[in-house]
Amino acid sequence: SMQCLPGLVLALSSLLGALALLQLSLYLRVPSRYGKHEERLCRARGRLPARCAWFLQELPSFLVPALLLALRSPPRLEPLGCRLLCCLFCWHYFYRTFIYPFFTRGRPFPLQLLFFGMLFCIYNGFLQGYYLIYCAEYPNDWCTDIRFTSGLLLFLLGMGINIHSDLLLRQLRKPGEVTYKIPQGGLFTYVSGANYFGEIVEWFGFAIATWSLPAFAFAFFTLCCIGPRAYHHHRYYLKTFTDYPKSRKALIPFVF
């Protein structure tokens, strides 16, 4: 049966951190070419409907940890803190795989980006699942530790912001519409990337609750990946809409 290899965890976490810096260098100045930042000349290339693409992309992040748990003999059910942390990760990706795609109204998604997205979800799903199921060691009272409780609160807050912001974005469009409008309400009152802010808070909360190198590497990757996208969204809105609220920040309320 599979065993914990600390060297593998360190190597995969370090690579994830390096990928985060690569993402930052690639997309800090130029946005990733999908959605509102897609060039017209690229739109004729291979792509899938948004609902199908999001489902396929996010599915490995749910299936891989579930498969690792199923392969472990005997099944790991203790301690409670470890079980809860694994459930938090799978809970997020259950929503992203089986709920979010069926309500999204985004544009068709490029196959090339879908392929890389799936590869990342397999990679990160394995890293987080492998660490929690085969390597993590937590005391029996981890659920009462300040790191777990504060991280859990941040995770739930971030997930709530993310889901609520997604709902507000969906309500901007009627079925069949592809035009972009100014987001209103919720945290969009203060930032252009409210949905991204929520997801970043969520994964930093998970990292604090998990208190592990793989989780912090993933939180850092999330920041480097969707942080610049929030910045480019902000610039897009300012350039496209003359009545866009000038008081809004790009990502962090009252700061950036």
TrEMBL record:
Enzyme Commission no: 1.3.1.22
Quote the InterPro entries the UniProt record gives: 3-oxo-5-alpha-steroid_4-DH (IPR016636), 3-oxo-5_a-steroid_4-DH_C (IPR001104), SRD5A/TECR (IPR039357)
Give the highest taxon in the source lineage. Answer: Eukaryota
Give the membrane topology, semicolon-separated if more than one.
Multi-pass membrane protein
Localisation:
Endoplasmic reticulum membrane; Microsome membrane
Which GO MF term does the entry hold, naming one? 3-oxo-5-alpha-steroid 4-dehydrogenase (NADP+) activity
What is known about what this protein does?
Answer: Converts testosterone (T) into 5-alpha-dihydrotestosterone (DHT) and progesterone or corticosterone into their corresponding 5-alpha-3-oxosteroids. It plays a central role in sexual differentiation and androgen physiology.
Protein name, per record: 3-oxo-5-alpha-steroid 4-dehydrogenase 2
Source organism of this protein record:
Oriolus oriolus
Q: What is the lineage of its organism?
A: Eukaryota, Metazoa, Chordata, Craniata, Vertebrata
